[in-house]
């Protein structure tokens, strides 16, 4: 299982400057099958300088969700560090 990519990333407008909300489609490879799953995620900048990432998978999967969410959070954090998010 791995996260291949995040596509169709859209940023939601919020009035809180330290919180960024997004919608996207996560392309996930599970047992040599590729699936596109809608996700929502939030990047919240803490006063200490850390960034807290939370992610939610919208659709049901026939696979345990917790490992996918953990990998998705790591992938999102890497995209944020590279500046690849809108």
Can you characterise this structure?
21% of the residues lie in helices and 50% in strands. It contains one helix and four strands, in the order E-E-E-E-H. A four-stranded antiparallel sheet has the order 1-2-3-4, with helices on one face. A hairpin with a 5-residue loop joins strand 3 (33-45) and strand 4. The longest helix has 18 residues, at 65-82.
- Overall spatial form: elongated
Strand content: over 45%
The tally of structural domains comes to 1
Query: Widest sheet: strand order?
Result: 1-2-3-4
Mean pLDDT value = 95
From the coordinates shown, what is the CATH architecture? Answer: Roll
**The biggest beta sheet, please?**
4 strands, antiparallel
Which CATH C-level class is it? Alpha Beta
Q: What are the key terms here?
A:
single chain; 86 residues; alpha+beta; Nuclear Transport Factor 2, Chain: A; 4-stranded antiparallel β-sheet; 4 strands; 50% strand; elongated
Write a brief caption for the model.
Helix content is 21%, strand content 50%. The protein is an alpha+beta fold.
Walk me through the topology:
Layout (H helix, E strand, L loop, with lengths): L1 E11 L6 E12 L2 E13 L5 E7 L7 H18 L4
Antiparallel strand pairs: 1-2, 2-3, 3-4
